[in-house]
């Protein structure tokens, strides 16, 4: 069991405008562009799409060692490595990916795309709309996880990868991993689903709906068409992140770390903050610096739409088609994607060997933090 870290004060930062611009060519990222418009599940098509991706290790001559890692809502392609130009955060699974680590890059070729609809190099609402001199903004089409996975299949084709040795993802990344295993069963050699669900529940849709409401209520949202205005809906996005972040952590953790303590010299009875409020302010400030509100809306709506059984005769029938050996795991303190959802998933996937429990005080974020336990699951699947 991990110990809960002590709270640290946030350093001061320059102001944020939130007028997000697409394009971030400075990193080690590469891009896959599709010449063919993507036909969308909800109807219509998306022309000129581009996926940013990163890779670690070398693809074997027989192309049998490729692993696909899929990020969650506000993640990106930067799974491993330090923060730097083009990479606003350090690799979110850095402890798992690298030489000698669970995903040993001396052996495995690890590929991580930024999700379609995202804002770290892949086509999303902040990207230029083909045929115009403006961003897509509010005209960006409604996407589903299946559309996102279809775009990722195009990337796999372009890389010459017919079959992944492993497809792994947590939370929203788990939704896409599951869609990969159902839509392309012959292309998935093993499957790791973490802290995810067969379909978004009423409560998940409810929390997400409040976040969407906060963004859309910001006067700078302008129906999603704010990218050229010089100011985006940073207040709304910040509120959404505060709320989301509470759902990502556990009640006992927040109580142990912060309790009722006031922040620094502030007085909560006279307009000051509690420590926990300051902690949420910090996470909100960090997100609005690196994330586009339009992408947050598109990706959140796609998560709400997630239902692996849609149009497939229900989840049981859809997941019966999964051929790959599968591991389904959840975090014992996760209140957003509770273990009951992973138990249900494991029961519906014939090749899954029950549910594994990641022990963590951190709630849903445990799938990002408990890398030792997750590493053991990866190693078990790749053995
Ligand atoms: N902290 C994660 C949680 C969502 O799974 C994220 O922001 O993507």
From TrEMBL:
GO terms for molecular function: homoserine O-acetyltransferase activity. Pfam families: Abhydrolase_1. Keywords: Acyltransferase, Amino-acid biosynthesis, Cytoplasm, Methionine biosynthesis, Transferase. Residues 1-39 are annotated as: Disordered. Substrate binds at residues 241, 365. The active site is at residues 171, 334, 364. Homodimer. Belongs to the AB hydrolase superfamily. MetX family. This is Homoserine O-acetyltransferase. It comes from Streptomyces seoulensis. The lineage of its organism: Bacteria, Bacillati, Actinomycetota, Actinomycetes, Kitasatosporales.
């Amino acid at each position: 069991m991990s110990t809960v870290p002590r709270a640290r004060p946030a350093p001061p930062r320059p102001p944020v405008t939130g007028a997000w611009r697409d394009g971030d060519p400075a990193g080690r990222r590469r891009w896959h562009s599709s010449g063919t418009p993507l036909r969308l599940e909800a109807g219509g098509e998306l022309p000129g799409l581009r996926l940013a991706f990163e890779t670690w290790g070398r693809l074997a001559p027989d192309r049998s060692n490729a692993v696909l890692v899929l990020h969650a809502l506000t993640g990106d392609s930067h799974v491993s490595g330090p923060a730097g130009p083009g990479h606003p955060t350090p690799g979110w699974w850095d402890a798992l990916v690298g030489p000698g680590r669970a995903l040993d890059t001396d052996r495995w070729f690890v590929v991580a795309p930024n999700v379609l609809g995202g804002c770290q190099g892949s086509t999303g609402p902040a990207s230029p709309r083909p045929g115009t001199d403006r961003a897509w903004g509010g005209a960006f089409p409604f996407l589903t996880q299946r559309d996102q996975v279809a775009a990722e299949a195009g990337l796999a084709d372009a890389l010459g990868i017919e079959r992944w040795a492993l497809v792994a993802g947590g939370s929203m990344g788990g939704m896409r991993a599951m869609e990969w295993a159902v839509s392309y069963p012959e292309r998935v050699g093993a499957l790791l689903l973490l802290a995810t669900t067969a379909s978004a529940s009423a409560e998940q849709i409810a929390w997400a709906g409040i976040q969407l409401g906060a963004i859309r209520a910001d006067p700078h949202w302008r129906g999603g068409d704010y990218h050229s205005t010089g100011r985006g809906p940073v207040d709304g996005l910040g509120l959404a992140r505060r709320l989301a972040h509470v759902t990502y952590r556990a009640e006992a953790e927040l109580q142990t770390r912060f309790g009722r303590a006031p922040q620094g010299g502030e007085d909560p009875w006279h307009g000051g903050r509690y420590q926990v409020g300051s902690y949420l302010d910090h996470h909100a400030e960090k997100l609005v610096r690196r994330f586009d509100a339009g992408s947050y809306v598109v990706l959140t709506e796609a998560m709400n739409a997630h239902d692996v059984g849609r149009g497939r005769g229900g989840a049981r029938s859809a997941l019966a088609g999964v051929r790959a050996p599968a591991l389904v795991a959840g975090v014992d303190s996760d209140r957003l994607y509770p273990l009951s959802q992973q138990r249900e998933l494991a029961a519906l996937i014939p090749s899954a060997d029950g549910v594994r429990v990641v022990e963590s005080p951190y709630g849903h974020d445990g799938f990002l933090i408990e890398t030792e336990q997750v590493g053991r699951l990866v190693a078990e699947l790749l053995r």
